[in-house]
Design goal:
Layout (H helix, E strand, L loop, with lengths): L11 H11 L3 E2 L1 E6 L5 E6 L2 E5 L4 E7 L8 H9 L1 E6 L5 H7 L9 H5 L3 E3 L6 E3 L4 E14 L2 E13 L13 H4 L2 E3 L5 E3 L11 H13 L1
Antiparallel strand pairs: 1-11, 2-3, 2-6, 4-5, 5-10, 6-9, 7-8, 9-10, 11-12
InterPro entries: Flavin_Rdtase-like_dom, Split_barrel_FMN-bd
Keywords: Flavoprotein, FMN
GO molecular function: FMN binding; oxidoreductase activity, acting on the CH-NH group of donors, NAD or NADP as acceptor
């Protein structure tokens, strides 16, 4: 038996509660952006993922404040079209959480979290030096999906990867050295140390495996 939920009948808060608790774990984008006046902003978003390659595309779910004020990250992406996505590992997880605090506008979140900002190569936003990976992004499109919700579609222009994380020959990441953190729901997060492997089978391999099982 399955519990059925007509999610259309729920209010916005309950829709978010249900969706965010089942679509897990989600990677965390610590987004750094810069206003046209040169003011840096750093804020975390877990409605984020890779969307494709050629071009390399990432998507970012943006939502306004509860009082309907537009968040600085959204404003900066709208006005400049440029931003950086800093991936979150165990080492900066607490700093990421501090950046989620709604500080007054005159307070810099990165300073409060003890994070260092440095220039990007191809976009005008800053990057977080302590992040294991940074993706420099330029806006492809900004889709308005609800009065207070937008989806930013961005092309990754440049990557910064901490030394020792990626094999330069195979371009494979060392997952044990990376230690990314995922978002669950509410105040719950997850590490990625407990892993298992399942290799994708070709049809011929699947047939061979199943014939062997049937013989047993």
């Amino acid at each position: 038996m399955h519990m059925k939920i007509d999610i259309r009948s729920l209010g916005a808060n309950d829709q978010y509660k249900v969706m965010s608790s089942v679509v897990v774990p989600r990677p965390i984008a610590l987004v750094s952006s810069r206003s046209p006046a040169g003011i840096d902003n750093v804020a975390p978003y877990s409605l984020f993922n890779m969307f494709g390659e050629d071009p390399p595309v990432v998507i970012l779910g943006l939502q306004d404040h509860h009082d309907r004020r537009i968040k600085d990250t959204t404003l900066n992406i709208v006005e400049t079209g440029e931003y950086a996505i800093n991936l979150v590992d165990e080492g900066i997880a607490n700093a990421m959480n501090i950046c989620a605090t709604e500080f007054p506008e005159e307070i810099n979140e990165a300073d409060m979290a003890g994070l260092t900002l440095a220039p990007c190569d191809l976009v005008k936003a800053s990057r977080v030096v302590e992040a294991p990976v940074t993706l420099e992004c330029k806006r492809i499109a900004l889709v308005q999906v609800a009065p207070q919700r937008k989806i930013a579609i961005g092309e990754v222009m440049m990557m910064h990867v901490r030394d020792g994380l990626m094999d330069p020959d195979t371009l494979r990441i060392d997952i044990d050295a990376y230690r990314p953190v995922g978002r669950l729901f509410a105040s719950l997060y997850t590490r990625t140390r407990d892993r298992f492997e399942m290799k994708r089978l070709s049809y011929d391999e699947w047939l061979k495996e199943n014939r062997a099982l049937n013989r047993e």
